[in-house]
Task: structure prediction
Amino acid sequence: MRINYMLISIAMLVYPMFVMSMDKKKEPYIYTVRHGDFVEKNIIQNGETIAFVDYRIDPDNKTIIINWMRTEPGWRRQGLAKFLVDLVSEEAKGNGFNSVEANTDEDSKTVHRVFERCGFNMVKWELCGGRR
Result:
């Protein structure tokens, strides 16, 4: 599967959410929230979110679009971001999707490195929303 990322300025989307799955058998665990085509996967440790990825499923284009990802400072450099990106990529493959895209800000160099380490390639830079 060819995985690409696009560097695009984004605005946070606010939408109502409900729980689709939660496995608390052991910590850390994945807590998934889904509303329509919007999904957020959280890694929970000691009742706190230590990392998450927020993405949109685009079934018409067979694409998953990662909009937002964050790891708490005390948990960085432990592979959590890569784990979440790999989890989303596996979901895309499992659903027969063609690509995973990631929208990031131009100055998010650390995030760019994470995606590059996960096998993504930058395909283009677009300015959205009239920023600058």
Observations:
- Confidence is low (pLDDT under 50) at residues 1-23.
